[in-house]
Every structure is written in structure tokens, then in C-alpha cells.
Prior knowledge:
CATH architecture of the largest domain: 2-Layer Sandwich
Helix content: 25-40%
Order of helices and strands: EHEHEHEHEHEHEHHEEEEEEH
CATH class of the largest domain: Alpha Beta
Strand content: 25-35%
Structural class: alpha/beta
CATH topology of the largest domain: Dihydrodipicolinate Reductase, domain 2
Distance between the termini: 39 Å
Number of domains: 2
Number of helices: 9
Shape: globular
Radius of gyration: 21 Å
Strand order of the largest sheet: 8-9-10-7-11-12-13
Amino acid sequence: MFKVVRDRKIRIGLVGCGRISRNHFRAIEHHTDNMELAAICEIDPERLQEHVDRYKVPGYQRLEDMLTSESLDLVAICTPSGLHPEQVIECAQAGVHVMTEKPMATRWWDGLRMVRACDEARVRLFVVKQNRSNPTLQMLKRAVEEGRFGRIYMVHINVFWTRPQEYYDSAKWRGTWELDGGAFMNQASHYVDLLDWLIGPVASVHAMTGTLARNIEVEDTGVMNIRWRNGALGSMAVTMLTYPKNFEGSITIIGERGTVRVGGVAVNEIQHWEFADEREYDAQVRDAS
């Protein structure tokens, strides 16, 4: 049984004050009735001091010091991807629930270690997958679960975004195998998640990747063919080389009794919604976009 926080705010410690941390700071402020920022951990002393001054909470350069000095309910991990496993495990061993940014790890076995450590410590492990909460994808998920597609035949995902060389050059860890991961693992992580969350367990994958333009270790472009255990076939195309800006993030599902395309820049528009049957919530398609 997990402990439940009652009659007080959830105390959160945040690790890593880089680009993505801004979303977490805003979320904590938005939910101030239920949670509070209790401490910050950041290895860069100048950046740490800047955030300590801004948020008026204790700051630490070492995660171990924050865990031993503060009484925390949850730690939000916002560090480079390759650092997530050891930091999550350290939090779990301290008896603190953990929420980590995507991707949870850059190696399969590190992900397993993280899950095992949290199970053994009886703490929760959350991986940030906020796209699941998009109204467009919530409607699509409902249609899948209600069986409105019948048998799903084919699924296709496009992620046509852009990340200029300046993006990768902005931090030494970006574009590296050890700490970042490539276009599939990092930028398209939320779309890879849809493959399993919406359609189900994957049986087999065939992929081709390339570093076509950016001066980085990992891929900036790739394509993938997928076969699901339920027999559906699909594909995924990803590139960070779209000119001149992010162009498309979409998913198309073709089934026995339904066809849907959710597109826009980030699966935020329902562009086609057609089923053999009708449901009351079909009228909400336009409002969801």
C-alpha cells in the first residue's frame, strides 16, 4: 500500500534546471493548492542560485544532499536522459516517489533497473507522457477501447519537426548516444508511446535511421515498419530536418469500421473522423482540436 498525502500539500523537489524544467515550475505554480516546490537541485552553481533566488527554496548541487536534508514526497527529474536511471534509483532507495522526464532511459536494461528499484522500494515511478491527456488523443483512445474501429488494419505516424544545429550545440549532451538518444528516442518519444498505448503490444520492428544533416552522434531522421501482436501493420516517419519549422505530428488509424487522422503540429487537430456507427461524443470532434 502506498502512503497517501492528506491535509497538506505534496512536497516536490526538482532536479535539473534546464530547458524542460520551465514546464515543471509552471505546473507546480498552477497546482499550488495541492503541491509546493520544496527544493531544487542543479549542478551548475550560477543556474542554481538564479532559481533559488526566483523560487525562494533551498538549493543543492548534489541529489544525495537534497534527499537527506529535505522531507520530500516526490522528485521531478529534468536532467539529460542518460542520467535518469541512476537518479531515479537513488530517489527510490531514499523512499521518495519519482517523476522523470522522457525518455525514461537511453537503454532498455536501465529502464528495467528503474522499475525494479521502485518496485522494491514501494514507491511510484511516473514517466512524463502528457500527450496522452490531449483532448484529441483522449477521444481517439476512447474510440479504440470501445472497439469502434473493429479490426485495426494499418497505423501511420509522422513526426516532421526541426531541430537546427544551434539546438544541439546549446548543450554538450544533446545529440549524444550516452545522454540524449536520437530523434526516435527523444523528440519523437511521445509518438513512439502512442504505438503501444493506442494499438497494443508490438510484435516486431524494422527500422532505418540516418544522420543526414546535423553534426551529432545520433540519428536526425528515420523510418520504421511495425507489426503488432494483434496483426495490425504500420509505419512511422521521423525527421528533425523539416524546413523551416515544425510541420506535422500526426497519427492515422485505418480499421474495419473506422478511419481517423489526428494531425496538426503535435496531434492537436482531428482532421478526419469517420466510423460506421455514431456516438454522442462525435459532436465534440471540432471542440477537441
